[in-house]
Amino acid sequence: MGGDAVASSYGTDADKSSLRSNYLSVRRAIPERTRFESDSSIMSSLMAFPLFRDAPLVLTYVSRSAEVGTHALIERLLASGRRVAVPRTDLGSHTMAFHEIFSLDELSPRTMGILEPAADAPELALPSQLVGSVCLVPGLVFDGAGHRVGYGGGYYDRFLAFYPGDKIGLARTTMISSNPLPTDGHDVAVDFIATEGSVWSCRDY
Known about the structure:
- By secondary structure, this protein is an alpha/beta fold.
- 24% of the residues lie in helices and 22% in strands.
- The protein contains 5 helices and 12 strands.
- A 7-stranded mixed sheet has the order 3-2-1-6-9-11-12. A 3-stranded mixed sheet has the order 8-7-10. A two-stranded antiparallel ribbon has the order 4-5.
- Helix 4 links the parallel strand 1 (57-60) and strand 2 (83-90).
- The radius of gyration is 16 Å and the shape is globular.
């Protein structure tokens, strides 16, 4: 991983709950304009990355609050004729499935206020439907090996455990820890991390 990683001030033995709380505070403290500029740069890095640029199908989270923004990216992909799918969660089973969309207007607030597709939107349920796709993965903090701390629900880890494509985390440099993050047996690392300056491979770790 590149030399832009910043040291976590929370220690390698910090538990996920403490990391989650601290990085949420860090994220909230970033001025909106700074977030916007960082996110625009991240999207430029992503669009220049051949693996992403050439993927016919993009699975992506729908950003909310101070997350790395994806709304403009989704609109850009759809306008260019690329296929896009976004998650719909099942609270009972703590799982999620990706449904193809054709406009952001198809989404409405659902779980925790996150915009989600309707139940009758085309579901991509079979691994064969996802071959050749890439998945953009959210997180609060990532390390060089691609491990991440998210919001604690485990939805992405359950999905990614069976996902056949490449996984790309989206992270501002303030969301990169040079210290290894605590991991559990069910955690699934991303393959690449897109930041303001480049897309880093995590596969050499």
